[in-house]
Q: What sequence folds into this?
């Protein structure tokens, strides 16, 4: 969306009589360009609601970051130490880890039989994700501050894997806005929110102010043991011909629950005494082998703080008349 307003990018030639393509512009377009232009990621309804709240867009701002990290295997400090006939040792304090052992007895062992399995949190993946997201976010906020914005609305963040080398691109963008008739406190960091349009208007009407977007990732690795592996294959027939047409895969269920719980803990640690609005949780699963998976759960939302009692906004003013 492009509309008239203070310039936030390079200079433009507003002279309608200049040579070249701009010389063919109508007089009205020349006047509009003379006052500069701004960019926005808002839809038309969100843009209208933004103006109704007294927020004026000043530019589309964004930040990027690319991060790389690698996997690890047996012997890592985050895994329990495995012995030829069992396991022992503890994961570091505060790191989720849960072990499983074969229930079939020694008679069932073979070179391919998995007598031991584990679910464990991957905190180095979580830390790398947080660093990449935080760097991209900081660069977006820095751009917003450079154009004199009070806040950034309609934030959209995406992550994209580049090739198969555990390289991830973080991209965050939003529309920087200023509050009409208000001056930003010196040195203040612009506030940010995923919300825009009516959702943002209703939030402010209810007496809440957006403080910042909040996001976190939880990563859980599933190292399948024999029961999980065979349930994923659909049968336990190799042990006495017993078929289980309906059975919960407990190890995977507990891993998914743990990933979601860890994501909530990570976000809760960023909120302080504030609350989360517009929470969105997304879980992705990467299959590594039969029953071996990595479960990554991302939770994001807007950190909000109450600043007044419920205060209904004025009815919207019509902007287009047909007669």
A:
């Amino acid at each position: 969306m492009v509309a008239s307003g203070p310039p936030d990018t390079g200079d433009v030639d507003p002279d309608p009589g200049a040579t070249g393509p701009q010389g063919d512009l109508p007089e009205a377009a020349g006047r509009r360009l003379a006052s500069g232009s701004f960019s926005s990621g808002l839809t038309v309804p969100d843009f209208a609601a933004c103006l109704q709240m007294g927020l004026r867009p000043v530019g589309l701002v964004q930040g990027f970051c690319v991060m790389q990290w690698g996997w690890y295997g047996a012997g890592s400090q985050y895994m329990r130490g495995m012995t030829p006939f069992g396991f022992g040792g503890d994961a570091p304090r505060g790191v989720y880890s849960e072990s499983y052992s074969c229930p079939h007895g020694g008679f069932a062992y073979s070179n391919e039989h998995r007598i031991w399995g584990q679910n464990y949190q991957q905190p180095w993946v979580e830390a790398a994700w947080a660093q990449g997201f935080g760097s991209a976010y900081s660069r977006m906020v820095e751009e917003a501050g450079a154009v004199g914005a009070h806040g950034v609305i309609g934030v959209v963040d995406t992550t994209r894997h580049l090739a198969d080398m555990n390289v991830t691109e973080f991209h965050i963008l939003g529309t920087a806005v200023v509050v009409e008739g208000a001056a930003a406190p010196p040195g203040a960091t612009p506030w940010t929110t995923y919300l825009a349009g009516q959702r943002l208007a209703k939030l402010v009407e209810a007496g809440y102010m957006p403080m910042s977007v909040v996001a976190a990732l939880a990563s859980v690795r599933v190292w399948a043991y024999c029961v999980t592996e065979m349930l994923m294959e659909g049968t336990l027939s190799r042990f006495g011909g017993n078929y289980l047409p309906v059975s919960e895969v407990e190890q995977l269920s507990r891993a998914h629950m743990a990933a979601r719980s860890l994501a909530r803990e990570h976000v809760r640690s960023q909120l302080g005494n504030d609350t989360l609005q517009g929470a969105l949780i997304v879980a992705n699963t990467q299959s590594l082998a039969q029953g071996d998976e990595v479960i990554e759960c991302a939770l994001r939302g807007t950190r909000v703080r109450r600043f007044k009692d419920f205060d209904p906004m004025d009815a919207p003013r019509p902007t287009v008349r047909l007669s």
Remarks:
- The radius of gyration is 27 Å.
- The mean pLDDT is 77.
